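User: My instructor asked us to take a sequence, write out its structure as C-alpha cells, and then describe one feature of it. I'm not sure where to start. Here is the sequence I was given:
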Amino acid sequence: MSWAEVLKRTARGFGQHNLYDLAAALTYYSVLSIFPGLVVLTAALGLLGPRSTQPLVDSINQLAPGQSRDLLIGTIDDLQRSSGLAGPLAVVGVLAALWSASGYVGAFMRASNTIHGATESRPVLKRYGLRLALTVVAVLVLALCSAGAVASGALAERLGALLGFGETAVLVWDTAKWPVIAALVGLVLALLYRLSPDSARGPWFGPGGLLAVLLWALASAGFGLYVANFGSYNKTYGALAGVIVFLVWLWISNLVVLLGAELDAQVAAEREDQHPSGTGRQEIMSSDIGQARPQDQSVAQLVHDASEQLSRLVREEMRLAAVELRNKGKRAGAGAGLFGGAGVLALYGVAVLIAAGVLGLALVVQPWLAALIVGALLLIAAGIAALIGKSQIQAAVPPVPEEAVDGVKKDVEAVKEGLHR
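Assistant: Let's start with the prediction itself. The C-alpha cells for your sequence are:
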C-alpha cells in the first residue's frame, strides 16, 4: 500500500466530501453535549469536597485555547454555587448528556456515510440501537478520561488514599495519565470510525484515530497561540468573543475528527484497489480474445489460443478461489470468537448487575454505582460483539468461493462468444 497515494486521496476526499460543512454540523451537536457533560463532572466532583473541582479548572487551562477557557471555567463556577444539588444535578446531567450526545453520534453516522460513499440501509431499530450503544460507550469512556484528567495533585492523593494506593502510584499516574487518556480517546474514535458507516470497511484500529488525537493536540495548541498573540476577537465580537472562540475551537476539533475518518476510509479504499474482487475479469478476457484472433488466423491457431486462454483463466480462478476461501475462513473464525467473547462478557455483566442489586439493597451507594457502570459497559460490549460476530458469520456463509465460481462461468461464456464471432 502506497501511503503517498493514501494521503493524496485523503486530501481529495477532504474537499469532495465537504468536511468543513460536516464539521459545522457536528459542532452544533457538540455544544449541546459538552455543557451537560460539565454538569455531570462538576456534580460528581462536588461530592468529594468544595475544592475538588480545582484540578478540572487546571486541566481546562492547559487544554482549552484563549477565551474559551473563560467560558468553561465560568460555567463550572456557576455550577459550584448550586450547593446541595450534587445528586440531582448528576442525574439530570447524565440524562441530558446522553440525549445530546446521541444526536452527535447520529450526525457522525451520517457524516461517516458521506465519507465512505455509503447509503444508509440498516433497519431503524438496529440503527438507533447502535447509535445509543455507541453513545453510552463514548460518554462513559470520555467521563472516565475526564475523571483521570482531573485526578492530580491533592485530589489524586485523596483518591489514592481512599483506594489504598501509595504515593509512588499516585506520582506515576500524574506522569503517565495523558498518554493513557490519549489512547482511550483514540480507541473511542476507532470504534466510531468502524461502526458508524453503513458499509464498514478496513481494519478495526486504523491510523485515523491516532492521527485525530495528535492533530487535535497540535491544532488546539496552535489555535490557542494564535488567539493569545494574533487574534482580534475582542475587537470584532465584543462580549461574544469568548463564545466565538469556543465555537471555532470545537469546529477545528470536529474537523480533525472527520479528517481521521477520511484517512481510514481512504486506507480501506486503497487496499480494495490493490486487491480487486475480480469484477473486471470479463472485460479483460473479452479484450484479450479480440486481440488474439485476427481475421486471417487459421482454425487450428484459434483453437490453440482458446485452449491457452482457458488454461490461464483456470489457474487465475483457482488462485482467486483460494484467496476467497481463506478470507471467508478468517471471517468465520473472527465471528465465532466474537460470539464466544460476547457470551463470556454477558455472563460477567449479569454477575456484576446481580452484585450491584445486592449492594443497592444494602444502600452502599459508591460500590453500587461502580458495579452498575461496569455491568452496563460489559453488556453493551457484549451486544456490539454479538452484532459484529453475526455479520461476520453471515458474510462467510456459505463457505464456497462464490465469486470465483461466478467468475469462471463468465470467463467461459466470454471465450465461447469470442470463438463464435
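For the description part of your assignment, you could build on this observation: Residues 3-275 form one domain. Try explaining in your own words what that tells you about the chain.
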